[in-house]
Amino acid sequence: MQSVDLSTIPLPSRSPESILKMLLATPNIASKEWVYRQYDHQVQTNTVIGPGGDAAVLRVKGTNKGIALTTDGNGRYCYLDPYVGGMMIVAEACRNLACVGAEPIALTDCLNFGNPEKPEIYYQLENCIRGLADASRAFDAPVISGNVSLYNESQGTGVYPTPVIGALGLMDDVSQRTGIGFQESGEVVVLLGQDSLQSVPNDLAGSEFLERVHDMVAGKPELDLSLEVRVQNACRRLVREGVINSAHDCSDGGLLVTLAESCISGGIGLAIQEPIPGRWDAAFFGERQSRIVISLPRTQMSHLSEMCAAENAPWCEIGTVGGDSLTAGTMLSVSIDTVKKAWKNGLETALRPAS
To answer: Are residues 161 and 245 in the same domain?
Structure first.
């Protein structure tokens, strides 16, 4: 599947709006509120940022410190390349911590694989663990615990190799934090990790879009660990120094899904003004790694430029917050209420028993 040339895949006949609403309603992306609202996530009154964002944040009573926690996993990436996929899961977990301003300090893993007595499954397990180890060293976050679930198969076919990573982060000052939602009209929206919205077809590798729209899991996932570390360092510094108002990691579903989620969380729209060169499907829905969407007042743009230059982290301006719709020139115009409905009801609709 790695050898599939993704540039030969035709552009979708469906509109970007139609695909966005479909992706937001898929169980992997849709709101998980239907699950977590059934549990008390305010126990002991330490919750600062609750579920639904990139990471939960809890205060450490009697101090200014906080801890951040997140879990992440993606079986498609590891199916296509166990080593790179393993690194990508660790990178995403640590990226989620960076988005709230936390420094990763420890990881735990849950490794879900098929029958390791089969050579191809053992290959997946061995190389995924190698990827987890190399990424954990890059972020200086040791794997301190974990468990393994093997022999997961049906009719002789193993499940996708699926590591799940839990990450713990430390915040020296819990008041220096950000959520995922855009905050106010006039904010500038910036993409950390790229200097333009230029995309390549392989950005679609292993993406939710590729599976849902083209019914295929293909391509070769890629990760530049050095870039990932630099982008996370820049984001963490921007949060801690109060330069930005929001931060949200760009992962499942790609850039347009990330932007829609930040609009939904903030209850406000966005006009995308940066040109979309190349294939719009790869630009909107590709899952290129090492990217974070942030928003900030225009008065802070010089500080953003200085801090990103200091960390050698690329960035580009995407657009401006405002209104009640998510727009991109003539390519896209959809109300925030519309995308919120798709995102909010998707999981419950998928899990509700048929009548």
So the answer is: no
Entry field: residues in the chain: 355
pLDDT of residue 135: 98
Identify whether residues 92 and 121 lie together within a single domain.
Answer: yes
315 - beta bridge partners? 192
Q: What value does the mean pLDDT take over residues 25-37?
A: 91
Q: How confident is the model at residue 354 (pLDDT cuts 50, 70, 90)?
A: low
List pLDDT tens digits, range 268-300: 999 999 888 889 999 999 999 999 999 999 999
Asked if residue 335 is part of any domain, the answer here is: yes
Q: Which of 26, 22, 19, 20 is nearest to 351 (CA)?
A: 26
How far, in Å, CA of 195 to CA of 314, rounded?
5
Same domain, 127 and 223: no
Domain boundary among 171, 195, 228: 171
pTM for this model (two decimals) = 0.95
What are the tens digits of pLDDT across the range 224-255? Answer: 999 999 999 999 999 999 999 999 999 999 99
Number of domains in the chain: 2
Q: What is the CATH number of the domain that holds 198?
A: 3.90.650.10
The whole-number pLDDT of residue 350 equals 85
Are residues 229 and 80 located together in one domain of the fold? no
Instruction: Tell whether 55 and 153 lie within a shared domain.
Output: yes
pLDDT at residue 3 is higher than 80: no
Q: Which two tokens stand for residue 270?
A: 């966005």
Helix residue ranges, H only, the chain: 16-24, 33-36, 75-80, 82-100, 119-138, 208-214, 225-240, 255-266, 280-285, 301-311, 336-351
Q: Is 54 helix (H, G, I), strand (E, B) or coil?
A: coil
The answer to whether residues 222 and 250 belong to one domain is: yes
Which residue range forms the structural domain that includes residue 304?
Answer: 178-351
Rounded to a whole number, what is the distance in angstroms from the first to the last CA of the chain?
38
For residues 174-192, one letter each, b for 16 or more C-beta atoms within 10 angstroms of the residue's C-beta and e for the rest, the string is: bebbbbbbbbeeebbbbbb
